[in-house]
Design goal:
Layout (H helix, E strand, L loop, with lengths): L2 E6 L6 H11 L4 E7 L10 H11 L6 E6 L3 H7 L4 E6 L2 H17 L4 E6 L9 H9 L10 H11 L3
The chain binds 4'-phosphopantetheine (PNS).
4'-phosphopantetheine binds next to strand 1, helix 3 and helix 4.
């Protein structure tokens, strides 16, 4: 069984993430969407909220599982017997950062590959931080996050 891990902060999940998840799920038997419990990167949404928003957004996707992890990604990948990590690339600066992460993970676990999917051009400007900023300032986030989580995101961040 080919298992791929899609890790991230997902603070919150965007339609750019969903696009990568749909495409990545076609490449494997099981895609594990893994939400990082990263103490050094303070998230706005709690770990439980980020997992719940993903689960709600991905309901009905047969071969996609959502979970969280603490500690090193390379260890989580090995523990789950996954063959690869998958990440989306929007820009050259994404590539520079992701290349560094891929090389670190390769040095920690040489058997684990990192695959990159090029983001759809219509999501190349989209990030969780843009969604947070827009929602906070009362901007329209329609089309940027899954419809089923839009109100929850606005409720959490709006009117600040
Ligand atoms: O969505 P993001 O913020 O780009 O995701 C980054 C993430 C969570 C994939 C990355 O920070 C990560 O892998 N964190 C786990 C800790 C780890 O293994 N770091 C690499 C070695 S320093």
């Amino acid at each position: 069984m080919k298992i791929i891990i899609y890790p991230g902060s997902f603070d919150p999940v965007t339609n750019g993430h969903i696009d990568i998840i749909i495409r990545a799920a076609r490449l494997c038997d099981k895609l594990i969407v893994a939400v990082a419990n990263n103490e050094s990167k303070k998230a706005v949404f709690s770990l439980e909220e980020r997992v719940e928003l993903l689960k709600r957004s991905l309901a009905g996707m047969e071969n996609v599982e959502v979970t969280s992890f603490t500690g090193l990604l390379s260890e989580f990948v090995k523990k789950n017997k996954a063959s690869a990590i998958i990440k989306g690339l929007r820009t050259v600066s994404d590539y520079e950062y992701e290349l560094q992460m891929a090389l670190i993970n390769k040095s920690l676990s040489p058997e684990v590959e990192t695959l990159f999917l090029v983001a759809d051009i219509k999501y190349s400007f989209l990030s969780s931080s843009i969604v947070r900023e827009l929602a906070k300032l009362g901007g329209n986030i329609e089309g940027l996050v899954p419809d089923c989580i839009k109100e929850t995101v606005i409720k959490k961040l709006g009117n600040n």
